């Protein structure tokens, strides 16, 4: 008896009096008053089976232990009064068995699944197939399936084609290190696993495919953290003959559709900020709109003071904490935190019965009132002020804003999306002592900034855009360069020689010479999106078989040594 008629959560009051067959794992067995109670677990939830001595199935149920695999056929009946479990969908009923088959026995698991959250993660990853039996994780993968279904439905409705691009490609500069694959047939040559399908999807636009998407696996050999993995999944998108406004509107519609279909959430229109606005209002290019009011620029007010420390500061920035009167201990902690952020300290102003401040001696009444008015301070509010170079003060104030919101438990729930646009086209790399792309080298500059490309490249803005949710970057995209002359010039500004351009990107420039349409796109981090939607603590909770923070797989013990003959096949040897 290996089939089933219903999943556990489908056994409800509608089936009372009917015969059903369920199958799954023994979640718990209890003996009570001569009766045997067994909770059967499958991916949908639990259902209770109950039997008494001399009844069919009783002997088999007495033998089962946790994680045995069983099949149970029986009649559904209502639970006795007072025994209903409202926490599960099948909690109003139970199954009285007529037949029980033990399909598979099980050793005692290395950890208690009911207490897995208290178990070392390394042990859970080593026995990931057991960890995945937990309902919390199973629900994450149900959500993953639902999100992907909604994504595919949306793109099908909008006329996109799902096109697979190669996983074995050439190494191109995209910011992170490549995972390299040696070629057996071409000694000394290597493939690279794709960091993104970027160039391929642009070539699909040259081919006239017009609207492309792909659920793409991508690979980046970079340092890991809670929301990063060496291999992860993107929702990759590219469109032709659409301007930035059309792309942003359509991708916003995608997210609204996904949230409505999977979570039943109606998202409001997304606010939009330029990169410059985001940095000055929130000190970050991925603002968390939940963390209270935006920053306030107090430079003009400070320059009217007699106190040279502020009057001569290049920038003065404030963090307003509405309706909160911190203790002296908290204020001292924030002063130390500001020092750690590189601003040397901070000035606080607390608006109680009167205005009091750590710098009252130097600000005097006039300065205190000036800062209070300029920042819109109200009775009960607190103001934290930092001063210094703009490149330091705004990010530091942004970090303080977030730290204060966390410590005062003011990060409210909800889904706070926004678009950040007009990123710088270039950044200066101190490490490499040269210009580098802020996004990637295929990003279209703002048309009105093109005259400054030769004279002041760091001031040139790009037609790039990010989607941010609750302070996390979810997606990044841009309009692309499609004229070969402009693309070649961008490569030159980035320091590539004519020979390097031809070697690394000659095929792309040649493709553009055969008629490339205006195009643009975006890539969503699917795993990161799911982590936020599921309320998971780590991206590992939404990936079936993730790597550790060191990039290892404890279950498969990967990476692992290989047979020397395999190295010989690809013309490699290990030098220690």
UniProtKB/TrEMBL annotation:
Enzyme Commission number(s) from the entry: 6.1.1.23
Positions bound to L-aspartate: 174, 220, 439, 480
Site description Important for tRNA non-discrimination, residues in chain: 32, 82
Domain of life: Bacteria
The entry's keywords: Aminoacyl-tRNA synthetase, ATP-binding, Cytoplasm, Ligase, Nucleotide-binding, Protein biosynthesis
GO cellular component, one term: cytoplasm
Example of a GO MF term: catalytic activity, acting on a protein
InterPro entries, sorted: Aa-tRNA-synt_II, aa-tRNA-synth_II, aa-tRNA-synth_II/BPL/LPL, Asp-tRNA-ligase_1, Asp-tRNA-ligase_1_N, Asp/Asn-tRNA-synth_IIb, AspRS_core, GAD-like_sf
Aminoacyl-transfer RNA synthetases class-II family profile domain mapped to chain residues: 141-546
UniProt-annotated stretches for the region Aspartate: 198-201
Major enzyme class: ligase
Reactions catalysed: tRNA(Asx) + L-aspartate + ATP = L-aspartyl-tRNA(Asx) + AMP + diphosphate
Residues that hold ATP according to the record: 220-222, 229, 473, 525-528
Subcellular location: Cytoplasm
A GO biological-process term: aspartyl-tRNA aminoacylation
Pfam families assigned to the protein according to its UniProt record, in alphabetical order: GAD, tRNA-synt_2, tRNA_anti-codon
Family: Belongs to the class-II aminoacyl-tRNA synthetase family. Type 1 subfamily.
Self-association state and partner proteins as the record states: Homodimer.
Function text: Aspartyl-tRNA synthetase with relaxed tRNA specificity since it is able to aspartylate not only its cognate tRNA(Asp) but also tRNA(Asn). Reaction proceeds in two steps: L-aspartate is first activated by ATP to form Asp-AMP and then transferred to the acceptor end of tRNA(Asp/Asn).
Protein name (database record): Aspartate--tRNA(Asp/Asn) ligase
